[in-house]
Design a protein that fits this description.
Layout (H helix, E strand, L loop, with lengths): L1 H23 L1 E7 L2 E7 L4 H7 L9 E3 L11 E5 L2 E7 L2 E7 L4 H7 L9 E2 L12 E6 L2 E7 L2 E7 L4 H8 L8 E2 L12 E8 L2 E8 L3 E10 L3 E5 L4 E12 L2 E14 L4 E8 L8 H9 L6 E2 L4 E2 L6 H6 L11 H15 L12
Parallel strand pairs: 1-4, 5-8, 9-12, 14-18
Antiparallel strand pairs: 1-2, 3-4, 5-6, 7-8, 9-10, 11-12, 12-13, 13-16, 15-18, 16-17, 19-20
Length: 354
């Protein structure tokens, strides 16, 4: 009898152990900086899985879903490690942390305007190592050279004004004066004046500012604007007579002032269309908050669902039951209701993506 009882206990233990093994054993897909791997684990949360594989996220790393979110068989964890990027953008240098794997991706993360046509000192496909990278970026800028009664406009990513003069086909003699140093970095909107000096005469090219007309555009978002017609400065010529004695300037007097080119008015359209709650980027918010998982649970169970509602907040916008049991459409509808009441404040970190 005792023998049978002992055998029964052993069998029961084996069955229970097998049940525990089947219940808690799972395979999780972990992707670190774009490199996937399968991890077999008994871990309960994202953080536990990362600890098991000796991955300790730093302050500049991004983990999705959040470390306290429970995992199940087939869960996907994405880790992007931060790396310092020293960027000299149009002559101004700063160091930022990015999770981008390449220079091209970093430009997208930093939302560099006109990045498509920009000059970059490193190939856009170049990988950014964990210890960082330094790059120079020059976005296209419109430079105007006033010379010989003309306004020469050039769109350039050149590193010096000397290169811009070559690009514009404007020649300089040793006597000519330029209003800015030829070694200066060209920047968008720069106007450069050339003064020609010949024997007995000096001709100054003076900029005449252009006007700006603003027009509403109902198809553009409120607060946005775009230049639909670039302004061009007018040119006024001032001519001086010069007197030299023993090759030294001893006299200079104004002979004439003449407007030789009228300015061209700049036309700017500005948006009047107001954003509605439906126009916001709810997909980006969901990916940031929960990794896009409508059944995600964070904060030890306090934050739930696609947009990490608390139960109290969920009920306050008309939700019933548990957010994780609601459809994606229902969760998004309730998130929109919450936004109409409180703006981005319920999502202090991810709300900026809306």
């Amino acid at each position: 009898m005792r023998k049978q009882l002992f055998q029964g206990l052993v069998l029961s233990t084996l069955v229970t152990a097998g049940y525990v093994w089947v219940t808690f054993d799972k395979t999780v897909r972990v992707e670190i900086d774009g490199q996937p791997r399968a991890v077999r684990t008994f871990a309960g949360t994202v953080g536990d899985v990362l600890e098991q594989i000796d991955v300790a996220p730093g302050a500049h790393d991004v983990v999705a879903p959040k470390p306290d979110v429970p995992v199940k068989d087939g869960s996907r964890i994405v880790v992007r490690r931060g790396r310092p990027l020293t960027v000299t953008l149009n002559g101004k240098t700063k160091t930022v942390w990015v999770t981008a794997l390449s220079v091209s991706e970093a430009l997208d993360q930093l939302a560099v305007r006109n990045a498509h046509g920009a000059f970059t000192s490193a190939s856009r496909s170049r990988s950014i190592p964990l210890d960082g990278l330094a790059i120079e970026v020059r976005t296209p800028g419109r430079v105007t050279i006033l010379a010989d009664g003309k306004a020469h406009q050039v769109i350039t990513t050149s590193g010096t004004l000397r290169e811009v003069f070559k690009q514009a086909g404007v020649r300089l003699s040793t006597r000519d004066k330029v209003s800015k140093k030829l070694t200066a970095l060209p920047v968008d909107g720069m106007v450069v004046r050339v003064t020609r000096i010949t024997a007995g005469k000096e001709t100054q090219n003076i900029a005449v500012p252009f006007g700006v007309v603003r027009k509403p555009n109902a198809s553009m978002w409120l607060g946005s604007s775009r230049i639909v017609k670039y302004g061009v400065p007018g040119v006024k010529l001032r001519t001086f007579r010069l007197r030299f004695t023993d090759k030294k300037l001893t006299g200079r007097w104004l002979v004439s002032t003449k407007l030789v080119r009228k300015p061209v008015t700049q036309v700017v359209e500005y948006g009047t269309r107001r954003r509605t709650v439906d126009d916001l980027n709810w997909g980006a918010l969901a990916r940031c908050e929960s990794g896009g998982n409508p059944r995600a649970i964070g904060g030890g169970g306090a934050y739930r669902g696609l947009y990490q509602f608390t139960i109290g907040t969920w009920y306050s916008v008309g939700g019933t039951g548990d957010p994780i049991n609601a459809s994606v459409a229902e969760q998004t509808y309730r998130a929109k209701q919450l936004y109409l009441r409180r703006g981005r404040s319920p999502w202090p970190h991810c709300g900026r993506l809306l």
